[in-house]
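sry for the spam today, last one i promise. struct tokens for design, 541 residues
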């Protein structure tokens, strides 16, 4: 083999923030803080303080491969930890505070976290967790001395005091690029949450790919506000791709309601944002109720769960391009992005819409295929649907500590999704394999039924689940939440499905509820709904 004559420079997370300092040092990072108010500084400041916290962690005895957990919102201190922890060779372990306390304690103990850094919001939670987490040597309150919590937390440390005690002269070590950098536990698996362990190499490559023009199209001219939490798969990579490209970064803290987000969008002239559908429902409702418009926002990336087609249309009415993205914790997380091709721009808005509602094309680096029950690959014709498998340089080979055993199928990761892939490479999720409704030996897509239900002007949110039927095995039930002031009947909603799907797909019944249960990452909790409506008797049964 003839080797190329190129320098060997490892792909390291620390190189991202060093580059941001050197080339975009005066670019702002703006945060709404937990203590109250707006904090402003620059990428040069992030780099300096990340080195200081790296020094402080070393003084606390954090070594190579040690896990340091965070229970925190999107804020500037959390960003510093992203680089300070991983940069020194430890593992950044972002913990989802929306999980049940028992699950959080399990995750901390399974990860064997040495220290946990937490925002003040979570002080009561930490007080309950501390006695259950013997591996944790200390708990770091991410604040200054004046705002330290008055709680019974053992070995409580002050973040700002740790930073102030260091001079920032720390030199980032030249690590092997395969060194573990970050750990994130997936709640989408069966049983206890399982950890996906990301490497420096995979994280940097993912940040490169996510920056591409047909993906986030990040640049030094953009102002990005990630609504997706930094505890949700590294905010979909935004915490890395923004400084990599020199984009101004706006971090919303705990204020994720429609009013708080809108005010921050307008005050900071945000051009791009990303988050799950449930957040956008609140934002759009607030804007509609108050007759507001966006002055700077041009693009909203939606992922985490299927984006209702009506949401894409509503964003378009506000002059915002709403783009589907899809991925998984096990994929770091991005897999596909719904940007259009040149051929689509020549089509009518209706024809374009048929592509926009799909989850998008694979990003370079991700390979996808769909297979049948026997593992045979199915055609990419946009019609055949089967189990979706993926592989690539930022896709996991297995879970932390070997949980779940060998999870790959001939080197491919089974996503648990059922999907189609069309000739242009656009993938569309038809269902989760566990959520598809099996009626008379045929499959009905719960996602399609939900999209139709929420298209009704009187419905705010809806879930479709399969309910036991003596003849057909399962039949669809729509569980729906009405919009405020709307008066929608069962018969009216069922009639709304006519002509939109084949007759045998039309649900057998509707149940109206006040709220729908969601997972900690904002997805519909259908396991809970199936349990709640297990005894529901369909009128056709």
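last one done:
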């Amino acid at each position: 083999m003839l080797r190329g004559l190129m320098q060997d420079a490892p792909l390291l997370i620390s190189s991202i923030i060093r580059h941001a300092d050197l080339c975009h040092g005066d670019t702002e990072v703006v945060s709404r803080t937990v203590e109250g108010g707006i904090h402003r500084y620059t990428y040069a400041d992030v780099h300096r303080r990340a080195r200081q916290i790296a020094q402080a962690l070393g003084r606390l005895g954090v070594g190579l491969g040690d896990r340091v957990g965070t229970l925190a919102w999107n804020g500037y201190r959390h960003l510093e930890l992203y680089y300070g922890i991983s940069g020194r060779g430890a593992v950044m372990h972002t913990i989802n505070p929306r999980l049940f306390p028992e699950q959080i304690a399990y995750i901390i103990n399974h990860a064997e976290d040495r220290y946990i850094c937490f925002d003040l919001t979570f002080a009561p939670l930490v007080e309950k967790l501390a006695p259950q987490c013997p591996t944790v040597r200390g708990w770091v309150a991410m604040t200054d001395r004046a705002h330290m919590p008055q709680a019974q937390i053992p070995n409580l440390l002050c973040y700002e005091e740790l930073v102030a005690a260091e001079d920032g002269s720390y030199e980032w070590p030249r690590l092997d690029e395969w060194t573990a950098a970050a750990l994130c536990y997936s709640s989408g698996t069966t049983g206890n949450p399982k950890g996906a362990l990301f490497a420096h190499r995979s994280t940097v490559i993912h940040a490169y790919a996510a920056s591409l023009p047909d993906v986030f199209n990040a640049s030094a001219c953009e102002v990005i506000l990630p609504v997706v939490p930094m505890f949700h798969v590294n905010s979909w990579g935004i915490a890395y791709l923004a400084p990599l490209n020199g984009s101004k970064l706006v971090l919303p803290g705990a204020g994720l309601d429609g009013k708080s987000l809108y005010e921050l969008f307008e005050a900071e002239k945000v051009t791009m944002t990303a988050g799950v559908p449930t957040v956008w429902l609140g934002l759009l409702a607030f804007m509609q109720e108050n007759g507001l418009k966006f002055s700077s926002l041009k693009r909203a990336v939606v992922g985490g769960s299927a984006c209702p087609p009506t949401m894409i249309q509503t964003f378009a009415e506000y002059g915002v391009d709403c783009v589907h993205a899809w991925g998984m914790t096990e994929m770091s997380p991005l897999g596909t992005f719904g940007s259009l091709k040149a051929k689509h721009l020549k089509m009518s808005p209706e024809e374009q819409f048929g592509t926009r509602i799909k989850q998008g094309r694979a990003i370079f680096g991700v390979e996808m295929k769909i297979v049948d029950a026997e593992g045979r690959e199915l055609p990419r014709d946009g019609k055949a649907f089967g189990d979706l498998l993926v592989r690539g340089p930022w896709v996991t080979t297995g879970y932390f500590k070997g949980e779940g055993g060998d999870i790959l199928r001939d080197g491919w990761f089974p996503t648990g999704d059922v999907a189609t892939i069309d000739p242009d490479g656009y993938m569309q999720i038809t269902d989760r394999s566990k959520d598809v409704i099996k009626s008379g030996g045929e499959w009905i897509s719960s996602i399609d039924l939900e999209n139709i239900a929420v298209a009704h002007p009187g419905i705010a949110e809806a879930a479709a689940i399969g309910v036991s039927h003596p003849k057909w095995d399962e039949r669809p039930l729509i569980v729906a939440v009405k919009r405020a002031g709307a008066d929608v009947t069962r018969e009216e909603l069922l009639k709304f499905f006519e002509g939109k799907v084949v007759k045998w797909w039309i649900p057998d019944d509707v149940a109206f509820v006040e709220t729908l249960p969601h997972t900690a990452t904002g997805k519909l909790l259908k396991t809970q709904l199936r349990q709640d409506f297990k005894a529901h008797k369909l009128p056709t049964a």
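The longest strand covers residues 459-469. ok im logging off now
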